[in-house]
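U., I forgot to send this yesterday:
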Amino acid sequence: MLSGLNHLTLAVTDLDRSVVFYGELLQLRLEAKWDRGAYLSLPGLWLCLSFDPLRRPEPLADYTHYAFSIAAEDFPVLVARLNAAQVSSWRDNRSEGDSFYFLDPDGHKLEVHVGDLASRLKACRQAPYAGMAFFTE
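Result:
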């Protein structure tokens, strides 16, 4: 039986640049680094950065992205830091809770979001998406 998400691995073209982005700008904890990779963490998240010269830095056109949780009081501070670093955004927020959608240096689509599954389901119960069905209380 699955018990959770084990880790995320992101292909990067410049390992040092990505370690700075995730470690310093987003404040993940650097756990280990080697010639072709690095491990960083947040509570409940293990992130692997893996050097891959075949990675194309253009973001894909689809909606696939990785969202990080953030407390409401920390949200404006992080968004200001990302804007000051001239990090590119890729979408405006259209959901409940504050969200900021942005790109990492290799074009991976990221989001910081205030809220969780419970708050999303509560909002959806009040205004469901087209064809939405609920399977839990």
